[in-house]
């Protein structure tokens, strides 16, 4: 019964100062709605950024031979027998991890040469069907076509490589690389198509050729250097990586890596961007905390006589402080719920199809090996919403503690001298 009385006193305190409570709540609601919007936009941008980068590299999860990540050499490859086990493990995975696509690759550093010039390139032997579903470069066709089943001496090259080697669709050029036996051998290929990604390193340094052609040329029958796995979401990387490691623990010749391990540069760039977001959100939380502290503290200072009377009527100092503490928590709870709902509704209603930044970002812009799409689609992560709710609760609790402590230490006799 006494607890119910304290709750009623807290509600009455907020109601008697309705204007101040409403203004404080409005500031909190706007801040929280902005927090939800910015967090959803940031998560959506990161997901698009990561998806673009991993589709042009080794996927969300990469299965490689030990040592290949460090050296990139052909000697660290997955042999045919082991590769069959890797493929079986991937294909037998349940649908829950959300494996969107997978693709075997045989990659080697080489030299592309024509009558005009010679340039160092990264040659990737790929399965045309699987790579077409996996890689982003297949969607960036400028001229010609991508590799098809049955192709043998065809190549898919970047536009800058074609320009510098003065190549057009149908032209021949020579790829040279060190084979598995250590010999330097060349392979004549014909340009099937040209792509443009806006990533200079890829546009002038990546060549796709049929996987079987690469295996015959390099003397590695049935082998691959990487099996790249593309997931529906980057959030599933850790669980899928753990599942594959468990399934392949009997295979000593393979190592399973998440995209953060396989692409450390991308991981660093995403983390740096995250730190900037955390700083911005920290500022928002500080503003919200100051708003709560200001409202509750002014309420304490302006109601000293009231608190003195309550204590004279039998309320203890701790109970007076508890009433003030409840006022802060109620203000936080109501504003938090309204702010979160408003932020979700506003973001979904107006920007569910994406926010277009093309006026500020070039249509073809790259960063850290990925193509940046000027249209960012907000993404709602349940985990982020839970974290935001807990953060708001903590901020409200901490901001209400000091005013509650001040109220609990009021001297009733001195407090009753103040005029309201």
Textual characterization of the structure:
With 420 residues, the protein is α+β, with helices and mostly antiparallel strands. It is built from 15 helices and 14 strands. The model has no long low-confidence stretch (mean pLDDT 82). β6 and β7 form a beta hairpin. The radius of gyration is 31 Å and the shape is elongated. It folds into 2 domains: 200 residues, no CATH class; 204 residues, no CATH class. The strands form 3 sheets. A 6-stranded mixed barrel has the order 2-3-8-5-7-6. Strands 11-14 form a two-stranded antiparallel sheet. Helix content is 53%, strand content 19%. The two termini are 29 Å apart.
Describe the strand arrangement of the main beta sheet, using strand numbers: 2-3-8-5-7-6
- Can you tell me the overall shape? elongated
What is the helix content? Answer: 40-55%
Number of helices: 15
Domains (count):
2
Compute the number of strand runs.
14
Low-confidence stretches: none
* Helix-strand category: alpha+beta
Distance between the termini: 29 Å
- Helix/strand order: HHEHHEEHEEHEEHEHEHEHHHHEEEEHH
Q: Overall mean pLDDT score?
A: 82
What is Rg?
31 Å
What's this, in brief?
The protein has 15 helices and 14 strands. The chain has helices spanning 2-16, 18-55, 68-71, 80-91, 128-134, 159-164, 200-203, 211-218, 237-247, 259-262, 264-302, 304-312, 317-351, 382-408, 412-415; strands at residues 61-64, 99-113, 118-126, 141-144, 154-158, 172-178, 184-195, 206-210, 226-231, 255-258, 355-356, 365-367, 370-372, 375-376.
